[in-house]
Give the backbone structure.
Amino acid sequence: AAAGIDTMLVMMGDNGPTMSLWFGGDTVLARRTVTALGAHLEHARAYARGATPARWHLDGSARAGEVIVVADLGYVLAKSAGDRLLDRGNHGWDPEHAAMHGIFVAAGPQIRAAGVIPAFESVNVYPFLAALLQLEHVPHVDGKPAVLAPYLRAAH
């Protein structure tokens, strides 16, 4: 038991920049864990479900744990101090960091030439591709069709 918390009751996600923790619905244990981690973690921060930044699009996600621990850029989280098999190329740190920004290139007969466009969240690629392929996209996604719509030519 670390910091008075029985860690045998905690299910942990995979090693990496983020780690989800599940407590089987024990909200008291989850709150105690967030508090304990907040007092002892270096180079990482713990969030209770629903308290993560909105830009992460985690609220309501079944894949997110009851507690989400996020490492600082350049650090990773491991289930145990003995874990040495860590992925050397990864993603998952806060997308606010410029080092986590990607590149988006689009060209073709249905793409309007626009040169360099403003930065956008990658969740907006899905509705762009659905429109490009003239597919009916799944409702209730985080991406907004209007973000990349100006770069599509009108369908003939």
